[in-house]
Design a protein that fits this description.
- It is a single chain.
- It is built from 14 helices and 15 strands.
- The protein is an alpha/beta fold and about 375 residues long.
- Strands 3, 4, 5, 6, 7, 14 and 15 form a seven-stranded mixed sheet that branches. A six-stranded parallel sheet has the order 10-9-8-11-12-13, with helices on both faces.
- The structure holds nicotinamide-adenine-dinucleotide and zinc ion (2 copies).
């Protein structure tokens, strides 16, 4: 082998170095869920290819989602103790299985929070979230991205190439929050030119819904939260009005603002009963309640008040079918999701990152970037 003459020594040498170095890596650091309320940084074996359609991605940047906090609260029973958390991130392909054709070692990629086989009935309908061979499994049913390496199943249809010159920080927001805000909130909520939109919850998901709702030029985007800092961010991002509901008067204020009608689209971006009830109370006749939040306990649907209002209620696990489109809007600077990043940590400080993200009212955190 050594006697082969290489005509392109630079490329060859670089590829050789990355393969040799990563091949030597046997253990890695990872953030592990240890049961409700418990998590720790542990050393874990580096993942290996287990199906020919897998790729191993060396994570470069990852982040924490509100859903990770739900898992830690015990709201997501599919996620068992011992699981490496995380379903967002960008990285570099470290290994590919024999059947992977769209990616090669060294390619820079976005990891989608949804794994899709591209072949099952649900995938053929564009409902990747319910792929019978995947769906939301990363950091839930299989080990996730808050680690130095991750095994990504169905790599060809679950990873996206990072365009030359693109900013990786902004692209971390494409793994989950931008498609979630857009698909579950804006598309399901049927936001239209001139319509009135209220978004309950100004966390990263609510703000992602706000950024992407602007594609459709609604007349009003009203942001509701309990956190003054997040509402100020929402104003800076272009919310036409903000309401702090710590006094419990959001419904009254919205009714006053809308001549007693309510809003055409009420997006629930929190995941607790109170915020869903707020949406029920503010939706106008003919409107849509678009639920985005992950709910761990029951929320009442008041049909005794809503049966005659011609409304729709939608739920959705993000499909990430809009990721390629959203990538183009980020590339062309129609939206700038980098604005959502407030803090940065190294992987070995990920517990501090969780603390900062979990205490957003005190720390002002929105998205925290964890770098390797
Ligand atoms: N459907 C999906 O596919 C999907 C995907 C990703 C995230 N999610 C869910 O979306 C939700 C939002 O995610 P996030 O990362 O922005 O979470 P987050 O916890 O950072 O933000 C939630 C916001 O809601 C505010 N809030 C709490 N109670 C409120 C109330 N009663 N009224 C108004 N505001 C209230 C909080 O102050 C906070 O700013 C979470 O439930 C998350 O699990 C769903
Ligand atoms: Zn998420
Ligand atoms: Zn599928």
């Amino acid at each position: 082998m050594k006697s082969l003459i290489c005509l392109n020594p630079c490329v060859c040498a670089a590829a050789d170095v990355s393969l040799t170095n990563n091949a030597e890596v046997k253990v890695m650091k990872a953030l592990v869920y240890q049961g409700p309320g418990k998590k720790a940084v542990e050393e874990r074996p580096k993942p290996e290819i287990s199906a020919p359609t897998d790729a191993i991605v060396r994570i470069v940047k990852t982040t924490i989602c509100g859903t990770d906090l739900h898992i830690l609260k015990g709201d997501v029973p599919t996620c068992a103790p011992g699981r490496i958390l995380g379903h967002e991130g960008v990285g570099v392909i470290d290994r590919v299985g024999a059947a992977v054709t769209a990616f090669q070692v060294g390619d820079r990629v976005i990891v989608s929070c949804i794994s899709s086989c591209g072949k099952c009935d649900y995938c053929r309908r564009g409902m990747y979230s319910h792929c019978v061979n995947g769906g939301w499994i990363l950091g839930n049913k299989i080990d996730g991205t808050q680690a130095e390496f991750v095994r990504t199943p169905h790599a060809d249809t679950s990873l996206y190439h990072i365009p030359e010159g693109a900013e990786e920080d902004a692209l971390v927001m494409l793994s989950d929050i931008l498609p979630t805000g857009f698909e579950c909130g804006v598309l399901n909520g049927k936001v239209q030119p001139g319509s009135t939109v209220a978004i309950v919850g100004a966390g990263p998901i609510g703000l992602a819904a706000q950024l992407t709702a602007q594609f459709y030029s609604p007349a009003e985007i009203i942001m509701i939260d309990l956190d003054a800092n997040r509402l100020e961010v929402a104003s800076r991002f272009g919310a036409t009005r903000t309401i702090n509901n710590t006094d419990g008067k959001a419904v009254e204020k919205i009714m006053n603002m809308t001549n007693g009608l309510g809003v055409d689209t009420a997006i629930e971006a929190v995941g607790v009963p109170a915020s869903f009830i707020t949406c029920e109370d503010i939706v106008a006749p003919g409107g849509v309640i678009a639920n985005v939040g992950v709910h761990g306990v029951k929320a009442d649907l008041h049909l005794e008040r809503l049966w005659d209002r011609n409304i729709s209620v939608t739920t959705r696990l993000v499909d990430t079918v809009t990721t390629p489109m959203l990538l183009k809007t980020v590339q062309s600077r129609k939206i700038d999701p980098k604005k959502l990043i407030t803090h940065r940590f190294k992987l070995d400080k990920i517990l501090d990152a969780y603390e900062t993200f979990g205490a957003a009212a005190k720390t002002g955190a929105l998205k925290v970037i964890i770098e390797m």
